[in-house]
Amino acid sequence: MTRESDKLAQLERIARIKAERELKRFAAFSLHMTRAQDHAGAMRAALDQSYRSTAPLSVAEARIANAQAGRSARELRQAEAEVARMLPRFDAARRDAAREFGRAEVLLSLSALRRADEKAPRY
After folding, report:
1. How many Å apart are CA 112 and CA 119, to the nearest integer?
2. Does 69 have pLDDT greater than 90?
3. In total, how many domains does the chain have?
4. By residue range, what is the domain housing residue 113?
5. What's the confidence (pLDDT) of residue 2?
């Protein structure tokens, strides 16, 4: 006859596998999200740098600087839109990973408690 603690241990192993899968998925998503945020930050810095320039410019140089600032602004808008699109899925992946990890931890503690109860002497 299979003990209840063994059944809980088997469930915990399955939950641990699921949790590892979700954590790996979240880690990959987090890396992608970090890169997107870094890209947006770089575009923000490039745009800020173009506006902070105080060097006197000729008309041709001013046109080039204006074109570069416009390109940086468009890229920044696209990068921020990408981060905004990814945010709901990122939050969902974080919730899923936390839920699966929590489930595995609860099953581990339940299995340990049940095993301790089964080993306790019965009077």
Report:
1. 11
2. no
3. 1
4. 4-119
5. 60
